[in-house]
Amino acid sequence: MNKLIALLVLVVFVPVHGQVPVKTSNPSDSWQLVKSLSDEFDGAKLDWGKWYKEDKLPNTTGWKWNNNANAKIENGVAALTMQHNADNESDDGTYFKSGILKSKATFTTGYVEARIKGAAIAVSGPKNGYGVCPSFWLYSDFDRDVADGEVIYCEIDVVELQQFDWHKGHQDDIMDSDHNLHLVKKENGKGVWYRPKKYPEAQLNKFRLSDDPSKNYHIYGCEVNEKEIIWYVDGEKIGSKPNTYWYRPMHVTASLGLRRPFVKFSNNANRAVNPLVDEEAKKQLKGMPTTMYVDYIRVWKKK
């Protein structure tokens, strides 16, 4: 009888994984998991009823998406792979294809969290990981019919890894992560981009990770409420911004994109670079293909 009682107590008090975020702004808040936006990746295959597989994926000018070849489950985690096109074949001026998970359901306020390992590009020297950007982000559809002063598009980057950014005279390395906001507002009838470097106080966050994120998992979280956007890494609050414009319904997204030297940023887009023509890209090409890993994605709303 004592053994039975002990077993019942164990069953009652063992916590269900993912029942609460790792860290939030108010410990007394109660949270409810949103199953349509959450995934433990425990199945044999990705749940394409939950994620877009082929259509309605974000427009990219520097690479293409191909989830058939580049998104799958490996040992209980989602694996998103960036691959160089065979024989450097050009596909509408691009040379790489990658994987992406974009939710069919949308998010406005609540809490998002993912446990992620970045993507190694194993080359000699200090540029491991240089050329790709593992990302966990929220973004809305474009609505160009909104009134003047309203939001056409909004984006919250829970985390962008391995961007090797240059900012204010500092060259980031692989341990520097970005947690930024992007926005398109309608002004005088036209869409105007608001980028974080131009508006750092309102939109830019940088953080120094404890180790190489391409070799180790970290938990990246973001709380979005009507007043504030708050970022967390491994349960540590690392930044916050007022939530002035980020109110459009957004898709929860994990993806592996390209960065320098495989693309060059101009006119608000990453433009493809032929990796066999650019010498720096040719060196980094030795580390392709590469894969980022997503252990889980969990999204909560307040009860």
Automatic annotation (TrEMBL):
SUPFAM superfamilies reported in the protein's UniProt record: Concanavalin A-like lectins/glucanases
Homology family: Belongs to the glycosyl hydrolase 16 family.
Name by which UniProt lists this protein: Glycosyl hydrolase family protein
Keywords: Hydrolase, Signal
Residues annotated as domain GH16: 28-303
Residues making up the signal peptide according to the UniProt record: 1-18
GO molecular function, one term: hydrolase activity, hydrolyzing O-glycosyl compounds
Record carries keyword Signal: yes
Organism: Allotamlana fucoidanivorans
GO biological process, alphabetically ordered: carbohydrate metabolic process
